[in-house]
From TrEMBL:
Keyword tRNA-binding on entry: no
Pfam families the record matches: DUF222, HNH
Protein name: HNH endonuclease
Domain HNH nuclease: 335-387
InterPro entries (UniProt xref): DUF222 (IPR003870), HNH (IPR002711), HNH_nuc (IPR003615)
Organism: Pseudonocardia halophobica
């Protein structure tokens, strides 16, 4: 990379950037700093044009395909360390503002000639090119005759220097709707039903998000009925929003299904939670771990999960090599769980009426601190109150073999213990 004409040009570019940076140093006047910002943006757009030109040239030569890539997007992503959407943005620009080669080997002009002109001059950036290309690939644009379509491209390109990409998209959408006055041809066939659900993990923090759509009314109703059944407020003091209650209700249902094992096998095994923990964390009594899909666990969530979850522990050494993969097992045996169920009759938290099937078993004295898996150290809690115990200042303790709960001082300064009323085993006379 450092040899030959490219290497020489690269050194000169670095020197020019260094000179520009020095000119905009700490003692520079405000006007000089503003001028430097404009120069930086001009340089960035110039380099974007150079990248797009090089990408188009490599595509025309078939270099990416020769080197095993079916898509130039994947090649650019791997070569330059870009996210795929960044690479795709350059590929879209290369396909639309650069000269192409026809199947007969004859050069073809750019698909968007007016956009190519403003992009080459630096008046339009990469995002402007992407917006124009997508607008002119939309349904309303495809219904235009060639002359009207070309005129729309000219108008969009002319406004790229005036509008931000978002503004250009809004204005361009209105323009195409105005030009496409007749709209699509009438179609009496019913639209195809679309049922889809996307799960995506957060890139920079634990957890993830779901986004779904169900055109099939029966499928949607089945999901809605399950969520609605579990999303009612726990009591008058339940301050969770409707959206939060629905999200946690759906998660509770999934936890129940995992626990009961009524799912098809995945990769030859029954779906379970896989908890990955480093050896040094395990030696510190499991202060940190991560899930297969959800990412890093906080110590509080790990302790909650360890109470009564059917999990597969995977222990890693310092280099990430698995040292041990445990068997799927429950911390609390079924017989002992039945005993806790008889005593607590569901969630033991005062005012909660969640049945046993919706509850976990919590160690009052946490197992990593030596708490035994015994009836006198276990309490049944629904997922909401289980999280509350692990993530807030509520405390639970056992007195005379029964659980009682101490509220945080901001709720009750005296922290008077609370417990559910005991069952009436004999008729009241």
């Amino acid at each position: 990379m450092d040899a030959g004409p490219v290497g020489t040009a690269r050194e000169r570019l670095q020197q020019a950037i260094a000179q520009l940076t020095d000119a905009a140093g700490p003692i520079a006047e405000p006007d000089d700093l503003i001028a430097a910002l404009i120069a930086y943006e001009e340089a960035r757009r110039f380099l974007d044009r150079a990248v797009v030109d090089a990408t188009a040239d490599l595509q025309r030569r078939g270099v990416f395909a020769e080197r095993g890539y079916r898509s130039p997007t994947g090649a650019l992503s791997d070569l330059l360390g870009w996210e795929r959407f960044e690479a795709r943005r350059r590929v879209i620009a290369a396909e639309n503002v650069c000269e192409q080669i026809g199947l007969d080997g004859v050069p073809l002009p750019a698909r968007l000639p007016a956009t190519a002109t403003v992009f080459a001059s630096g008046e339009a950036g990469l995002r402007h090119v992407e917006v124009i290309a997508r607008l002119l690939d939309s349904g309303p644009a495809r219904r235009l005759d060639p002359k009207t379509w070309a005129g729309a491209e000219v108008q969009l390109a002319a406004n790229a220097a005036i509008y931000t990409p978002s503004e250009l998209h809004t204005w361009g959408t209105q323009l195409l709707e105005l030009l496409d006055q007749d709209g699509p041809e009438p179609d009496d066939t019913p639209p195809a039903q679309l049922n889809e659900l996307r799960l995506s993990r957060f890139r920079t923090r634990p957890g993830g998000k779901l986004a779904g759509r169900y055109d099939d009314a029966a499928l949607f109703d089945a999901i809605a009925a399950v969520v609605d059944a579990g999303a009612a407020p726990r009591d008058a003091d339940d301050q969770r929003s409707s959206a939060q209650r629905q999200a946690e209700a759906l998660a509770e249902v999934c936890v129940q299904v995992l626990s009961r094992g009524r799912l098809p096998e995945t990769g030859g095994r029954r779906p379970q939670l896989t908890v990955t923990v480093r050896l040094e964390d395990l030696e510190r009594r499991a202060s940190s771990a991560s899930l297969e899909f959800g990412g890093q666990l906080t110590p509080q969530t790990l302790r909650q999960l360890a109470c009564d979850a059917a999990v597969i522990p995977v222990v890693l050494d310092g280099t990430g090599v698995p040292l041990d993969v445990g068997r799927t097992s429950r911390t609390v045996p079924d017989g002992l769980r039945r005993a806790v169920t008889v005593r607590d009759r569901g969630c033991a938290f005062p005012g909660c009426d969640r049945p046993p099937s919706w509850c976990d078993i919590h160690h009052v004295r946490e197992w990593q601190h030596g708490g035994p898996t015994a009836l006198h150290n276990l309490v049944m809690l629904c997922s909401v109150h289980h999280r509350l115990i692990h993530h807030s200042h509520w405390e639970v303790r056992m007195l005379d073999g029964l659980p009682e709960f101490l509220p945080p001082s901001w709720i009750d300064r005296s922290r008077t213990p609370r417990r559910k009323p005991p069952p009436l085993l004999q008729p009241v006379e």
